[in-house]
Amino acid sequence: MATTTKPKKVKINKQASFYESVNRNFDKAAALTTIPKGLLEQIKVCNSVYQMSFPVKIGNQYQVIEAYRVQHSHHRLPTKGGIRFSHLVNQDEVMALAALMSYKCAIVDVPFGGAKGGVKVSPRSMTPQQLEKITRRYTTELIRKGFIGPGVDVPAPDYGTSSREMAWIMDTYMTFNHGEIDAPACVTGKPVAQHGIQGRTEATGRGVFYGIREMLSYEDDVKAIGLTPGIEGKTMVIQGLGNVGSYTGMISVKEGGAIIIGVSEIEGTIYNPQGIELEKLLRYRRDKGTILGFPGSKSLSEREDWIAIDCDILVPAALESQIHGNNAHRVKAKVIAEAANGPVTAEAEEILLKKGVVIIPDMYVNAGGVTVSYFEWLKNLSHHRFGRLEKRYRAGTYSGILDQIEEHTGGLIGTRERSTLTKGADEVDLVRSGLEETMITSYRQIRDIWKRKKNVEDLRTAAFVNALNKIANDYVRMGVFP
Ligand code: NAD
To answer: Distance from the CA of 425 to the center of ligand 1, in angstroms?
Structure first.
């Protein structure tokens, strides 16, 4: 149940900015490594920050648009990171998000440096035509300054953008780079029919599900926070029913057996201890323009009350700094899976760790998007759909093996079993399998550091130590030019 007691005020001097918060976490982990100080400084700073202003004409009015692209780390190229459309975009935020991308790529072994883009617009208040104009002009500015290209910097969707904007970006890039055969690899998260890849839209949410499932599979770790192993039957509350939040929820229910008991959106928060069907809720919101009043649910008095719902897993999937020094004490969940980037501030984290909450950090748990973006980039560079060459061949081989088994045993394999056992992998099967493998392997690396290294007290610090060691290793092996 949501708390009805008045929130206690915790006295905090000044909330750190998002970028300061990321760097505070960086410093905490850096102190536990043996990486030389100068090298740590190089890993920490943003290598290139491009702030731009450009005009667009909307009706008869001129409007100046403020936008950014930040390339945090060039230790591997291309750099990679989404583009955010929001009226809240600012340089500090884009720098923080770009830095997180470097660490994220290192954690999931995606061979890219980190980057991020932001355009200060409110997409909800604009028509698709206006958004297309802005997207194409922004892309043109990136091309002019050499901030986009398959081997340079590769954007993707983020808050407020989707495959639609990515198609516009690709088309603009191709217009200016006529004949460049690898041009579609200049951006990922494109529509499947426009050089995209199956499974990219759901990838971040699916990755969050794999991450939560993996964390909950370690008996000792879950017992320590008073839970039983496994995601089945665990209660979950989600903030933000956009791309990441909705897929996290739907996949956690369908494939993991979790129960969604609370959902928060801009208009407010709903609660139903019996479970909320997300597909129905999404349809309801599309029709009514709100989640409030969804049949069977109760609306909580304040939007922020999602934080205080008594549940097993809290999934902030909207924006950064949602759980902060002044509301962290209200959290009742045992696990927080950071589906959004930076939803828990450094101040909040201190409070939550003291309460024994396990935080599965953003730079690991929401890395499914960049992982499948990497697969899309590979697909674009190899110019063929994964599975196309071998699917039928493998199906034939498996069928031959089953024929032999039948012949030698005298038994018969049923038609349904035969069709399951002989299925060759489609693109989406390969993408899901690659993503699952990535999320499991990466979690094990982080957990190993968490459990093995003295002084590493939480998963975020372990994830940072892992990322910093990998990036530092690159610098040491490559040397520094000249
Ligand atoms: P989105 O625009 O599809 O959805 C965000 C949702 O959050 C929207 O429905 C919005 O109405 C809601 N929201 C905004 N403010 C809110 C508030 N105060 N309370 C409740 N709901 C609120 O964005 P997305 O792509 O799902 O991204 C969400 C987060 O996940 C961001 O932090 C983003 O950086 C991160 N992320 C996204 C991806 C990706 O592949 N899209 C990958 C990694 C991380």
So the answer is: 31
For ligand 1, which residues put their CB under 6 angstroms from it? 82, 157-160, 204, 239-245, 264-266, 303, 317-319, 339-341, 366, 369
DSSP string, 377-400: HHHHHHTS-TTTTTHHHHHHHHHH
Q: Are 95 and 72 in contact (CB under 8 A)?
A: yes
Please tell me the distance between residue 242's alpha carbon and the centre of ligand 1 in angstroms: 5
- What number of other Cβ atoms are within 10 A of residue 424's Cβ? 16
Angle in degrees, CA 304, 305, 307, rounded to 5: 85
Nearest in space to 267 (alpha carbons), one of 243, 246, 294, 248: 294
Q: Which pLDDT belongs to residue 10?
A: 46
For the entire predicted model, the pTM comes to 0.95
Residue 180 CB burial class (10 angstroms; 0-12, 13-18, ≥19): middle
Cβ-contact 23, 31 below 8 angstroms: no
In testing the pocket of ligand 1, which one of 102, 243, 267, 307 has its CB within 8 Å of the most ligand atoms?
Answer: 243
Give pLDDT tens digits for 272-311: 999 999 999 999 999 999 999 999 999 999 999 999 999 9
Tell me the catalytic residues. Answer: 116
387: left (phi over 0), alpha (psi -120 to 50) or beta: left
Q: Tell me the two tokens of residue 243.
A: 């791309």
Interatomic CA distance for residues 20 and 378, integer angstroms: 34
pLDDT surpasses 60 at 117 = yes
Q: What does the DSSP assignment read for 38-92?
A: HHHHHHHS-SEEEEEEEEEEETTEEEEEEEEEEE---SSSSEEEEEEE-TT--HH
pLDDT for 34 equals: 97
Q: Please answer whether residues 103 and 463 qualify as being in contact, where contact means their C-beta atoms are separated by less than 8 angstroms.
A: yes
C-alpha 6 to ligand 1 mean position (Å)? 28
Return phi, psi of residue 119, to 5°. Answer: -125, 125
State how far the Cα of 215 lies from the Cα of 235, in Å rounded to an integer: 15
Separation of CA 244 and ligand 1 centre (Å): 6
- 44, two tokens: 């920490």
Q: What is the number of the ligand 1 atom nearest to the C-alpha of 84?
A: 34
Output the pLDDT for position 2.
Answer: 43
Q: Give the Cα separation of 429 and 16 in Å (integer).
A: 42
Of 167, 91, 338, nearest to 175 (Cα)? 167
In 107-257, at which residue ranges do the beta strands (DSSP E only) sit? 113-119, 153-157, 235-239
Helix crossing, 427-452 with 368-382: angle to 10°? 140
Closest approach atom of ligand 1 to CA 342: 32
Atom of ligand 1 nearest to the CA of 264: 20
